[in-house]
Amino acid sequence: MSVRVRFAPSPTGPLHIGGVRTALYNYLFARSKGGKMLLRIEDTDQARYVPGAEQYIQDALKWLGIEIDEGPVVGGPHAPYKQSERKAIYKEYAQKLIDEGKAYFAFDTPEELDTMRKELEAAKVDNPSYNAVTRMQMKNSITLSADEVAQKIANGEPHVIRLKVPLKDEIRFKDLVRDWVVVHSSTIDDKVLMKADGMPTYHLANIVDDHLMEITHVIRGEEWLPSAPLHILLYRAFGWQHPEFAHLPLLLKPEGNGKLSKRDGVLGDFPVFPLQYTDPANGEVARGFKEDGFLPEATLNFLALLGWNPGTEQEIFSLEQLIDTFSLDRINKSGARFDIQKAKWFNQQYLRERSNEDLAGAVLPEAGSPEKAAQLVKLMKDRVTFASEITSEVPYLFKKPKSYDPEIVASKWNDQVKEAMPIIANILEGIPSEDFNSTQIHDVLFQSLTDMGIKAGKIMQAFRLAITGEGKGPDLMLMLEILGKKEVLERIETAIQVIQN
Ligand code: GLU
């Protein structure tokens, strides 16, 4: 049977970066097996539906290059791929369980359920829930007569459909990541399958769809592991074979203690969402990897290694290489620490792989001219983590320095420098404007200084200070070229005046 996997997010807000990793692992697995990747929108919880969230999911996957073979936009043989458009299907399957005595109608009001819970708690019952024992005291189609049930339904009394979970049964399955999971059915309550509003719950819709859409492997976050035994019971109730399960390890806080949350991003000054997101309810803006300057290929590579171990020292993987190497048996059991520094490292590596032309295009608006953009890229490419830093890290190439680092002034602006500065200006003055490039400047300057018996090494930091106001930075000769002869001479002049007075 050919592999079919699905990414099944609920559009309840922006897709968390952990969700993106789930999508990525599904995608890598599907592609590595020549299988299909589905996108299914699980929007049955109308109360939590957030407009725009669905589009956000599509945009995020597109940005990262995670291609969907079947889904709401691309369509496919199992359309519709949005659960809110499949209501009739769930109803039919819930009815099937009722007909076969595997599920039942329950008419209990919220007050009655509350009373039951309180009584069970007062009696110190281990597992106070609606289950094989307690259902016998409640108002449902097991305790009521067929006529009473028919009457209540005809009267439009609010009711739900619950799964009749067996009292004594053992559920065991082999998770491809967690290995054997064994749970006793007495720990599972009679979960609601259809809500009073006629909508299915996540559990019912999820199982029906995974079956109808012929999903072979369910790859999802570890937070769904506790639901898996119930899902197995549902497959059994329907008489269907369940898919394979692989529950992915949690993404942990940078410190490694506890689950990564939105708040961690705010506290740690990093994004936890793929794209920037503005909450339609309150206008709050959450940062995105994209807008922060992460490249999609770097983000993918970072996420791929967050919970999966390639089994080699290699860290840089193209999407093709990931597909070739990926396997579920190398997914770690333990949580993966979210280390934004590592993400930055990946970005730096991938930025260096980008062509100079590409980066020049990206910084053109700030650079002002194609020529300056190209020069800035040459100067900064190997020094930056994000493309935006190509310009933002060198503000002094756009504006004259406003001040001079006092520490460098104190330690470097000595008599020797005072003497040398006008000499440097003089030497540079002698280079024709059209030859004012880094190689020429370097050769002429160093040769002339040596000829005059001046040790260039002793005065270079002060020279840099005069030009940029700072004690360190990128290649000085290249910066002189970028600034141009006139500007350089002006800056030396100003520095001499400002610093020496
Ligand atoms: N709709 C669930 C979610 O939001 C999907 C869980 C699953 O993959 O079964 O994560």
Folded structure, characterized:
By secondary structure, the protein is mainly α. It has five domains: about 5-70 and about 205-250, HUPs (Rossmann fold, 3-Layer(aba) Sandwich); about 90-195, Glutamyl-tRNA Synthetase, domain 3 (Alpha-Beta Complex); about 260-355, Orthogonal Bundle (Glutamyl-tRNA Synthetase, domain 2); about 355-395; about 395-500, Arc Repressor Mutant, subunit A (Orthogonal Bundle), CATH 1.10.10.350. Helices cover about 45% and strands about 10% of the residues. It contains 20 helices and 13 strands. It has helices at about 15-30, 55-65, 85-100, 110-120, 145-155, 200-210, 230-240, 260-270, 295-305, 320-325, 340-355, 355-365, 370-380, 390, 405-410, 415-430, 440-450, 455-470, 475-485, 485-500; strands at about 5, 35-40, 105, 160-165, 170-175, 180-185, 190-195, 215-220, 245-250, 250, 275-280, 285, 335. The strands form six sheets. A three-stranded antiparallel β-sheet has the order 3-4-7. A two-stranded parallel sheet has the order 1-2. Strands 5-6 form a two-stranded antiparallel sheet. α1 (about 15-30) links the parallel β1 and β2. α1 crosses α10. The longest helix has 16 residues, at about 15-30. The protein is elongated and about 110 Å long. About 35% of the residues are buried. The model has no long low-confidence stretch (mean pLDDT about 95). Bound molecules: glutamic acid. The site of glutamic acid has 8 residues, from α6.
